[in-house]
Amino acid sequence: MIMSRKIRVVVIDDQEVVRIGVRAALERNGRIEIVAEGTTEADALRLANAHHPDVLLLGLNTINNAKLAHRHLSAFDTIRRLVKDCQTKVLVLSRHGQKGLMHTMLHAGASGFMLKDEAMNSCEGLAQAVVDIFRKRKLPMSHSLYEKLFLPGPEIDDVPRLTKRRIEIMQAIADNPHLTLAQVADLLGIAESTLRNNLSAVTRALDTPNVNGAMIECLRLGLVRICT
Questions:
Q1: Number of other residues whose CB lies within 10 A of the CB of residue 35
Q2: Residue 184 is part of a domain; what is its CATH number?
Q3: How much is the pTM?
Q4: Helix (H) or strand (E) holding 5
Q5: Which of 74, 126, 171, 202 has its CA 20 to 30 A from that of 23?
Q6: What is the rounded distance in angstroms from the CA atom of residue 153 to the CA atom of residue 128?
Q7: Higher pLDDT pick, 222 / 26
């Protein structure tokens, strides 16, 4: 089937080399037109409102410490706004393929998730993913990512071990972001001091300086999920 118009795409990534690679990959496909590029989540929202793209590619780069951990939550909020307010389909390109990260981005409303290495190594694959999203076909995802997302079992050997109760505590906080710690403790039927002791143990186990950093790690590792 011949398409009546080109698929309009916005590319967002804070690394210029990635933007150049994505542009080169997509411009080889005569069905796709890149209408704008940006580097931040704010750019994504601004350019989506200005250009009304069919698909927006949102790049997620390596996050190795708690100081940058807020970027995952920022990306989550950005995707929700792009999908709800701008009616934009989002393809996430990530340097990480952890199950928790994929679940979080897909639950935010992303239409697809690809590893950057995959996208850069297969121009045809990246272009086809954009076309599939535009045509509302099956979610573009490689077999390796499908296994990580849907099949049980740890994906890396060094996942920090948390007790079931501590995972329940982190999930309760994720499910009730409007509640204070005292209210979360009451919801769980434990003393606030017990809750705080458990949170201290979680931050130590995950090697993060605070509860926010621990929450990001729990999301990244797939221990906690955000439901929309």
A1: 16
A2: 1.10.10.10
A3: 0.64
A4: none
A5: 74
A6: 30
A7: 26
